[in-house]
Amino acid sequence: MSLRSAGDDVVSRIARLLELEGDRWRPHRALELLSFVLGDRAQVGDASRYIFAYARHRGYDLPPYPLAGCGEIREFFADEGVRNVPDWYEKKLGLDERAYEALPSQTIVVVRDRADRRKAFFLDGMRYRNAAAYENLADSGFARTLSEDDLEALLSRMLAFLTGDDAFSEAETTSVGPLRGSSCAF
To answer: Superkingdom of this entry's organism (predicted)?
Structure first.
């Protein structure tokens, strides 16, 4: 048996075990598992500062206060084809002016799929611990800020995106509890 097929067999058996134990899974535990599987591909932080985390992840050198005029923020804007921060949120994430204005009071959860596409989910309130940086979802304590119903609504949307069920993902646009919506895939 090759390493690849041995690994596939183990994954298949784990998936089967998860199905068999389905009645024991609660949203908080499911989020822990999803966070472990995704690692740094699931992050949480201040929604209004996500643009800077995204730019840094793309390799741009940005100082702690990126709009102070130093660093590579101008190059980032030019490469992204935008004029400024609100323009980036509109063109990249699909946010209108009203949604953009709400960002300072929101938390963002961003997941990245295997094809390196991202989707952002916006929630009311400050549900992160580190205002200066983005944390992996697994390390953030984020799940403790949501009820099971709210977490289940978020999980269903995240999984729809991550598994390629875009029809379901696009249909799930209504606000539920603190969940205020999501971006387009970017």
So the answer is: Bacteria
CA atoms within 13 A on the CB side of 178: 20
Tokens of 96: 């209108």
Q: Give per-residue burial for 86-107: e unless 16+ CB within 10 Å, then b.
A: eebbbebbebeeebbebbeebb
Q: Are 155 and 130 in contact (CB under 8 A)?
A: no
Beta carbons of 106 and 92 less than 8 angstroms apart? no
Classified as helix, coil or strand, 41 is: helix
Per DSSP, the three-state class of 35 is helix
Separation in Å, CA 95 to CA 1, 83, 100:
49, 15, 6
Please write the tens of the pLDDT for every residue from 33-83. Answer: 999 999 999 999 999 999 999 999 999 998 877 777 778 999 999 999 999
Quick check: pTM over 0.70? yes
The contacts of residue 130 (CB under 8 Å, 6+ apart) are 45, 140
Is there a contact between 172 and 155 (Cβ–Cβ < 8 Å)?
no
Pick from 29, 26, 45: which is nearest to 37 by CA?
29
Residue 46, beta-bridge partner list: 107
